[in-house]
Amino acid sequence: HVQLVESGGDTVEVGGSLRLSCTSRGFWYRSACMGWFRQTPGKEREGVAAIDNDGGIKYSEFAKGRFTVSKGGGRTALILQLDRLKPEDTGTYFCAAEGGCFVHSGDFFIPSYWGQGTQVTVS
After folding, report:
1. Is there a contact between 85 and 18 (Cβ–Cβ < 8 Å)?
2. What angle do CA 70, 113, 1 make, to 5 degrees?
3. Distances (CA, A) of 15 to 11, 76, 79
4. E-state strands within the chain
5. N or C: where does the chain have the smaller number of CB atoms within 10 Å of the terminal CB?
6. pLDDT in tens, the chain (123 residues)
């Protein structure tokens, strides 16, 4: 049973920073992708950043230069550093994972596993 749990969401001022973490349980594949997706008001869920076990990394255009995805240590599987936050970054951020996957330059991977989400509010 795979379990992903996000933490770190909060309310911050414009230009502020947050660090989101994702802990995982029961998820291990030789090749795998983990990533962050978000649901912002009035929009469909979209990919933010993804990383695979070979170190491949992908960012959405809006995330480039402001957000940084990295692998964690121990139970912390994934981290997303959010800097220079804007009001349009407000939304629910989800940790997601898929086995047998590599990050590539096309569309974001389609996850089989999702966390419950953590709320980020920028005002």
Report:
1. yes
2. 110
3. 12, 26, 19
4. 3-7, 11-12, 18-25, 32-39, 46-52, 57-59, 67-71, 76-82, 91-99, 113-114, 118-122
5. N
6. 899 999 999 999 999 999 999 999 988 888 899 999 999 999 999 999 999 999 899 999 999 999 999 998 878 899 999 999 999 999 999 999 999 899 988 899 999 999 999 999 999
Q: Which amino acid is at 92?
A: T
Strands, E, within 83-117: which ranges? 91-99, 113-114
User: Do residues 31 and 99 lie in contact, with contact meaning Cβ atoms separated by under 8 Å?
Assistant: yes
> What are 102's two structure tokens?
């590599």
Distance, CA of 111 to chain centre: 12
- Name the residue type at position 45: R
Torsion sign, CA atoms 34, 70, 38, 94: positive
